[in-house]
Amino acid sequence: MELAPGGAPAYGMSMIELTDEILVAYVDEELPLEARLAVEAAIARDPVAQSKVRDMRETAALLRSAFPEEEPRDGTDNVVLLKPRPKSHLARNPIILAGLAAAAMVALVIGTGLSAYPSHGGRADFMADVAAYHSVYAAETEHLAEVPASRKDHIEEWLGARIGLQFTVPDLSSEGWMFEGGRLLAEADQPIAQLLYSAPHRQPIALCITRSDQTESSNPVQYDPGKGLKVAAWDDSGYLYIVVGALAPTELDRLTQEVRDHFQHA
After folding, report:
1. What pTM does this model have?
2. What is the rounded distance in angstroms from the CA atom of residue 194 to the CA atom of residue 204?
3. What are the residue ranges spanned by the domains of the chain?
4. Which tops the pLDDT comparison, 112 or 55?
5. 3-state SS of the chain: helix, strand, coil percent to 5?
6. C-alpha angle 95/99/101, rounded to 5°?
C-alpha cells in the first residue's frame, strides 16, 4: 500500500487493498472521510469484503449485547475499575473460541496485544476484553472445553508445548472448583492456554496463561469490568497468568493464591 508522508497509509480511489485492518477501521468509523468513501466504493465491488464487514458488525453487536457498558463502581485500592470496549475494533486480532455453539458465536476476537500492555493502563484494556469474551463462553455447557478433563495429560502436554511452558493443571477442588478441560486461544500469533473450571450452580471460571513481556514477577492486580465479573492478573518468570469469573473479591484472592502456589512450587 502506498504510504503518505510520515508512514501513514495513503488511500486512493483507484487502488485500495481491503485488508482486515482497513475493514475494521471502516466498521469502527475510524477512517477520515476521503478514505472512508474510497474504502466504501471498493467494498461495493468485493463480495468477500462485504461478507467480512457483515461478520464484523455482527460480532460488535453481540459484544454490545453480552457486555453493555455501565458506570464503574467504587472499589478498593487494589482493584482497577474497567469499562468494557464493545466496539468492533475487538476484531483486529482473532481469538478462536472453538466449540462454542454456532448460534451463539463461532469466533470472538480480541484486539489488543498482550505484549503491548506492561502497565495497568494498557493491560486494563486487555482485561476488559478478556471479561467480555468470558461472558459469552461462560454460558456454554456442552461445548465449554475444546479438550475434556478426562484427557488432562494430553492437555498439559499440548497446551504446554504451545506456550513453551511445562506445567500441570492446578487442582482447585479445595475451593469447590472442578477441572473441566482446556482450549487453545490465540492473540495474533501468540498462543494462550485456557483451563476451565466449574462448580455447581455457578458460572465457569477460567485460568489463562500466555507469554508476557515482563520478566520480573509481579503481585496480582484485580480488575473490575462490571456485570459481576472479576479478573486477577500477575506476571511470573516471563508468563502472564489471568483468573476470570463471576467471583467475589475474597474468593478471587483465594483462587489466585492457590494458582500462584501451584505454579511456584511445581
Report:
1. 0.58
2. 12
3. 75-264
4. 55
5. 35, 25, 40
6. 105
